Automatic annotation (TrEMBL):
GO CC terms of this entry: plasma membrane
Keywords, comma-separated and alphabetical: Membrane, Transmembrane, Transmembrane helix
Gene Ontology biological process: cobalamin biosynthetic process; response to antibiotic
Transmembrane residue ranges: 43-65, 72-91, 149-170, 274-294
Stretches assigned to coiled coil: none
Keyword Transmembrane appears in the UniProt entry: yes
Name used for this protein in its record: Regulatory signaling modulator protein AmpE
A GO molecular function held by the record: threonine-phosphate decarboxylase activity
InterPro entries: Beta-lactamase_Reg (IPR052966), Cobalamin_biosynth_CobD/CbiB (IPR004485)
Organism from which the protein derives: Candidatus Thiodiazotropha taylori
Top-level taxonomic group: Bacteria
């Protein structure tokens, strides 16, 4: 059933639905503001206790729905609820569309649009020159695919809707108002995301390797541990970028583009193609585990 729900959601996400505005997290921010107005003791609002207190009620609500409706109408209500939750947790941005818009902006030489889209993918201010900018966007695609897609699917496979929602809420926490006011809260929320991403990031990196150049991906993995460790904020991003970059032979593509004097924007398209091929590998592995009774 889990595999069926995942396939339904991925098909709907890719081909049938274009209502990503419904994935707004305004309800969570409103709930957080309501909690803040109750002037809870400082000890209950800071650190890991504050994070757990914020996450617990929505997750308890999902657990309650499961308890009440899991067997109702032969599980149909729970099936529909599971599909809705998983669809909500995917994304929220469509990386494929973002990459298409980035390439289009580069072709049109629209610097403002290029900078806006690149910033959205990289989650930071992009470089101003090529090939550094297109390389950063390609690496951003490899990195964001994990949080937008693979980690959500992993936690859904492990814990159902509860797992996918818990992961999605965790990714919102570093952007909460408390994170701007309390450095410890921000660090704890970032650490929580890093912990939740640890296993999925390595599964994603493995899928990148299988779907791309396996030898170059292994070289990228080794180079991260041996020489590039200090370049990245955490091991998850380092492994995803180094392994994914190796799998798509990013350095070779940059050199070939330079020799051919052509636009570097195709690097983002190559990264997105690797993500889609890796998703197929990811699903095939899970299908094998499912049909063999191991998942």
């Amino acid at each position: 059933m889990t595999l069926t729900i995942i396939l339904i959601c991925l098909i709907a996400e890719r081909y049938l639905l274009d209502r990503r505005d419904l994935r707004t997290n305004r309800w969570f921010y409103s709930y957080n503001q309501w909690l803040e107005r109750h002037d809870l003791p400082q000890a209950l609002r800071q650190g890991i206790i504050g994070i757990l207190l914020l996450m617990l009620p929505p997750l308890l609500a999902v657990s309650l729905v499961q308890h009440l409706f899991e067997e109702t109408l032969f599980g149909l209500i729970w099936l529909l609820f599971s599909i809705m939750v998983l669809l909500y947790c995917l994304g929220p941005n469509d990386l494929d569309s973002q990459v298409d818009h980035f390439v289009e902006a580069v072709d049109n030489e629209d610097e403002n649009e290029i900078r806006t889209i690149a910033s959205a993918i990289i989650k930071d201010e992009p470089p101003t020159s090529e090939p550094a900018r297109s390389q950063a966007v390609a690496e951003g695609v490899l990195l964001q695919a994990n949080q937008n897609l693979y980690s959500v699917l992993f936690w859904y496979m492990l814990m159902g809707p509860l797992g996918s929602l818990a992961y999605r809420i965790a990714t919102w926490l570093p952007a909460m108002e408390q994170s701007n006011q309390d450095a410890d809260y921000y660090l704890n929320s970032r650490q929580l995301v890093t912990i939740l991403d640890w296993i999925p990031a390595r599964i994603t990196a493995f899928c990148y390797a299988v779907a791309g150049s396996f030898e170059d991906a292994l070289y990228g993995w080794r180079s991260y541990h041996e020489t590039r460790f200090s370049e990245f904020a955490d091991s998850n991003s380092g492994i995803l970028i180094c392994t994914g970059g190796g799998a798509m032979r990013l350095t070779t593509l940059i050199n070939e583009a330079h020799e051919g004097v052509q636009s570097y924007s195709f690097l983002a398209k190559s990264a997105m193609a690797l993500v889609w091929r890796s998703l197929v590998v990811f699903l095939v592995i899970f299908a094998i585990l499912t049909f063999s009774g191991l998942a």
